[in-house]
Amino acid sequence: MGWKEAAEPVLTRMPTVTRPDGHVPFKKKLGWTAGILVLYFFLTNITLLGIHPQGGEDLFGQFRTILAGEHGSLMQVGIGPIVTASIVLQLLGGANLLGLDTNDPRDQVLYQGLQKLLVIVMTALTALPMVFAGGFLPPADVLQLGSLTLVGTQIQTLMFIQIFIGGILILYMDEVVSKWGVGSGVGLFIIAGVSQLLVSGFLSMSDEGFFYSWYQILFTNEVTAGSWLSREGFNTLFIADGGGQLLALATTLLIFGIVVYAESVRVEIPLSHARVKGARGRFPVKLIYASVLPMILVRAVQANIQFMGQILNSQWATMPTWLGEYSDGQVVGGFFYYTAPIYSPNDWMWWTGQVPAGIEVWQIFLRISVDLTFMVIGGAIFAIFWVETTNMGPEATAKQIQNSGMQIPGFRQNAGVVEKVMERYIPQVTVIGGALVGLLAVWANMLGTIGAVDGTGLLLAVSITYKLYEEIAEEQLMEMHPMMRQMFGRE
Predict the structure, then answer these.
(1) What is the Cα–Cα distance from 440 to 462, expressed in whole angstroms?
(2) 9: Cα separation from own chain's centroid
(3) Which residue has the higher pLDDT, 275 or 187?
(4) Which residues pair with 148 in a beta bridge?
């Protein structure tokens, strides 16, 4: 008996969101999407029952904009378990260890059930160390629930149950959006978190707010006109926390412009309908063909490495210095330092005095090199995995074109012929696009963005929003022309 036969009774009984029987009207899709978004914001504002008022340290830290959620709330784990489960499945599928054919309806059910099971396991494995290891989610001294008094481990167990339930809710909220709404829940939650930080970064009435900072600079004589060209004035206007943030503003605007431009760069393969004379179309192979979503997987690997380092540091009385050195909760040396991403200009601009004392320039450049290598190569590898597992590869694309009744003018109407044409473009563009997105993500982090948004998070948010815009436009077109839904298999 193979693993599929043994696991089938469990995997086929995993709770699932039922797919709609027919076409879902566009307004109804928007309603479901908006409803899930409101529910997400609501859940991020529900504080864990039993947590200490001080809240503790966020283990996800700078990765929060990518992994979504909110520290100390029901959404504590964010989309982390979903992303980690996707990484595991992609690696297993890429090595052909699962033995599942996603074109077979039975294997599709098993794959989806396995994915849900993995998410549930990852949710528990992520929540356990957060609650029971170190002071990441410190419990209150005493919790009074009516006549019941909870202390210590009892409170921690209650917190674990709440986080676990929150993780399961995110899983099914994502599934509702994917089947009944527009886009995906994972993308929606990332957009929500990044947008919130951007608005706060511009409008906050604190030293971190962009407009408030410029009010302070212009009307409190913090930097006089004569000192703007000095080293201190330049640092205040462009780089320093609470300063003019001109570098962060320029990076934010450039990311918006570059991503929108990159999304529009494409190779268009002409298509014509085999039976309907005059019916023509184009299949676009975009520069960022695999989208920027594989970047979530790359950053999630880095997040899990840092997550492990934080836990080892909290549990290991004397961690070997070659493995990691920590100061005030921040890694300043060892393996975990060199594998940590560059989060902001303060991590590498040693001349500003923000880099922790004792870190040499060669260490900073080594860390940048590791981050750049990890993101560029990892981006290309995960882009390939993403294309193959989401039926965007040459073979799957050729079958889709064949099934829609379209063909490439000048070539025989044969899936194998179309596949060979697609192989000229898709693999190369996938690798180039994945590496380019990785390079952009590191560059954005190094220069910083408004609202302390992680550069990768901003990159993801802009690209996902652009994709969402395209999908909304396509849905509106299908709504106005119902025959197109049948032609493209959307009915």
Answers:
(1) 13
(2) 32
(3) 187
(4) 145
pLDDT band at 278 (very low <50, low <70, confident <90, very high): low
If you search the block for the tokens 């709609």, which residue do you land on?
20
**Percent of the chain topping pLDDT 90:** 21
| Angular region, 403: left φ>0, alpha ψ -120 to 50, beta rest | alpha
H/E stretch holding 445: helix 426-447
**Confidence label for 34 from pLDDT (cuts 50, 70 and 90):** very high
The residues, ordered by sequence, that sit 6+ positions from 100 with a Cβ below 8 Å of its Cβ are 4, 93, 107, 110, 111
Give the SS3 label for residue 461.
helix
pLDDT above 50 for 225: no
Q: What global pTM score does this model have? A: 0.82
Q: Which run of H or E residues covers position 252? A: helix 246-264
- Is the distance from CB of 96 to CB of 146 less than 8 angstroms? no
Tokens of 84: 């980690």
Q: Is 111 helix (H, G, I), strand (E, B) or coil?
A: helix
Neighbours of 369 (CB within 10 A): 11
Q: Describe the strand order of the beta sheet including 406-407 as a list of residue ranges.
A: 280-286, 266-273, 406-407
Collapsed DSSP state (helix, strand, coil) of residue 411: coil
* Closest of 348, 373, 377 to residue 363, by C-alpha: 348
Amino acid at 131: V
Closest C-alpha among 161, 448, 190 to residue 299:
190
